Amino acid sequence: MINQQVIVPRPQATEWLLHWKDRDVIKVVTGLRRCGKSTALRLAQRALVESGVNERSIVSIDLERLGFAAPTTPQELYDYAVARISSPSCYVFIDEPQRVKGFERAVDALYAREDCDVYVTGSNSDLLSSELATLLTGRYVEFRLLPLSFAEYRGARAALADDADDTELLNRYLSLGGMPYASLLPAEDVSEYLDGVLNTVLVKDVATRHPRISMPVLRALLAFLADNVGNRFSLKTVADTLTANGSKVSPTTVSEYLNALVECYLIFKAEPYDAKGRRLLQQGGKYYLGDLGFRHLLLGRDGSDLGHRVENVVYLELLRRYHTVRVGRVGDLEIDFVAEREGKPHYYQVALSVLDEATLRRELRPLELLGDAYPKTLLTLDRIGATDHNGIEQRSLVDWLLK
């Protein structure tokens, strides 16, 4: 039985929310359903109290838990919040406000008050990242919450007194993913739980916005992506593969379906980038899963394609640490990731092992060709070997993930 009181710390989200505390913007936490947004708000509230904020100054509204007593109109939502304001400076947290049609009017009205600092979460079809600019133009900052990082995952397993070492934990993480509740479940129960999450996303997020989309075809497309994490492919290739498997679609339809999966955070697209010419390319992007547990669910196997699963984990970790993450090219050679923050790139290569000299030279070559002074890192599963190759840092993947 799972201890329902286990709350996995989300330090990055908590620190971000506290960083924007008392600033004149609406704080919005977005992300995949069940990735921990509600918990992030609760942790931020706890941190506020620990910093000296009076508990009476915190107004927490969880529309899901209110059930039939929840406000149903923007006016009711606004009135419900205002009735609970009891000090000249209050922190108003609204979890999933999009359950109220026109919720943005209530959020705007609260934001306009002198006594409110407003925080909201969103994951469904009315508050996806793509909608924020329309609903809250110029008045918000967004934090995109991902499932647990490996460091957070290790903390969750430690709370269950799991005595597995880091290598064992990483193997589980690479197979079952990092959805917070799934991290607390026995391995044999994870797929059943994730199936419920996936069906909810497809029905409530995708079908609501795109009622003409075929759910069986969309699920078949997601399975294809799970089986081709980190591979390059054309829209025609995907369409031909799905059609051959009984799901007749055109390349145009595939493009529409891919966009639908991206906007609800089930997948992410890493755009192609000419690392030497510092420009975006038209072709050659890659797709990665928002959580590797969906690969386990859709394909039912864990032992294959370790290299691309590791690549997926690195991509998600880079999204946590950098503003932009792309896949790079140097001529005909590939750099796995070009991560950028404040206009400064950091180049990453990912390999299972470079103990073989030929493999090491192949992985280092595109980084050496760049000829610039920006940081370059080679990540591997090796726990031994050189740590520096003429300015290119070699790091153990486990150590880097736990940084």
Automatic annotation (TrEMBL):
DUF4143 domain location: 204-350
Domain AAA, first and last residues per copy: 26-153
Pfam family, one: AAA_14
Domain of life where this protein originates: Bacteria
PANTHER family linked: ATPASE
Record-given protein name: AAA family ATPase
Organism of derivation: Enorma shizhengliae
Lineage start: Bacteria, Bacillati, Actinomycetota, Coriobacteriia, Coriobacteriales
